[in-house]
Amino acid sequence: MTARSFNYYGYSKQSYIECLGLIRSTNRKHISILNTWFVLINLLYLVFSALNLFGVNQERIPLYGSFLLASTLFEIWLFAFPKAVEQHSHFAVFSSILILYSYGIITSVIEPYMPATMFLILMSLTALSFIVNMSTIICLAIIGVSVFLATSYMHKTFSIAYRDTYNAVIVTTLVIGLHYTFQRTRVSQFILYQRDLQIQKELEVKSSFDALTSLLNRGRFFSITEEILRSRPSEYLTLCLLDLDGFKQINDNLGHQMGDKVIQIVGKTILKNLQLERFANTPISEWDLTEKVSNAGRLGGDEFILFIRGKNSKQEVTELLQKLLDTLNAVRFDGLNGIHASFGVTEITSNDRDIDNAYKRADEALYESKRAGKNQIRFSSESRSGEA
What we know:
The protein is α/β, with parallel strands linked by helices. It is built from 14 helices and 8 strands. Strands 1-3-4-2-7-8 form a 6-stranded mixed beta sheet, with helices on both faces. Strands 5-6 form a two-stranded antiparallel ribbon.
């Protein structure tokens, strides 16, 4: 086992980094649990001090009051800003350890006639609660134990300080071993969870996108569009059908490989013109459907469908589609003299409770575009006339 893998609990640094989100979330939860427990303990001791119960006298009120205040303020930060705590996970962990170690060392000093127990308990709790890395946890343990033993020899008799040393060596050795074993199991669980999550995302992508173009497949396109329409967004929406002209001749004359290349180019051109590159092959569960972003799909063969959002008028949509058509027409390679396509477009009205009626109008507009000479854009004449 290399030093690097030991530092990351027997796994590579890359595997550890991939789990950082889960590690930070777990650390935040454990910090919160320990700190809540610490607040209650100090509150209880403060009551004992005020009432002189169980040998805890009033001279210790400032001690317990100070730690109660510090842990309460820390608690407020933990609950009020959970995202900031996770973002600054190391700071939160170190702060928690500093508070707890300080408490353990001070309680050892104020009881000079007894071997310390609280510090060793707190060191064990923090080691089993927090995931940092082995080098960090070992350094923190050594620093904490060194300060603890230094104060012990300064304020206690040699025999009691010697007993503290013996206990500290035994507990520290045990704690480091338990920390490695316990946290290695946790990191292993995190890695397995991340792998399962990645497999789920890959399956979602495969079931949602067309492999040739990275556009949505037919089923996923319609399900997403239906979901958006059900939310009845108060925005200008259009549906466009796009069918390539002369695609059969491309396959017959230039070969099916060229036909696939043309389909790929059309897909990339649609993604670029609709500014959808960042969504290509991204799991649908990560999409924000409230964002005014268009989507596009491949219906099959040389047929494509566009759901256009973020435009305010028929003129803006026409300009967008004309730019798309001009880009396709300008394609030149391997004997291909431009990619030609016909567009059928319809505006989605308040009467369109689902996509079916709009799809029918767009299909009719596409037919008109073909009949009028192809390689052009036609809007459905019924887009607004049918709106109540």
